[in-house]
Amino acid sequence: QSRIVESGGGSVHAGGSLRLSCAASGWTLDYYVIGWFRQVPGKEREGVSCIDNSGARTSYANSMKGRITISRENGRNLVYLQMDSLKPEDTAVYYCAARSKEYRTCLLADVGYEFWGQGIQVTVSS
After folding, report:
1. Which residue from 14, 40, 80, 126 has the least number of CB within 10 angstroms?
2. Is 9 helix (H, G, I), strand (E, B) or coil?
3. Which contiguous run of DSSP H or E holds residue 52?
4. How far is residue 117's CA from residue 22's CA, in Å, rounded to a whole number?
5. What is the mean pLDDT of residues 14-42?
6. What is the Cα–Cα distance from 23 to 6, expressed in whole angstroms?
């Protein structure tokens, strides 16, 4: 079973930082475009950031651009989302997802993302 696990979430005050990690169990993320998404209850899932399999191309949502950095360590099977200057409106469940191998490009929409983690809570208090 292709399993993805997120870690690094938690509660911070506004202006704080968190680094989310995305790891795969029993398979490698190295060949996949990886996206980070977030969702607030009652709202649509939002694409936050993505990175292609080489790490050369990244994309960021306007709502978080300048405050987040996505990176990956191929070989260690890890993808990170560094989040700084967090705001209360960043509070959400954050998901890591791997895009199907047929897709080589980064996309912030939920199109072709085949494998998903269970999500991790990020709470930012004012």
Report:
1. 126
2. coil
3. none
4. 8
5. 95
6. 6
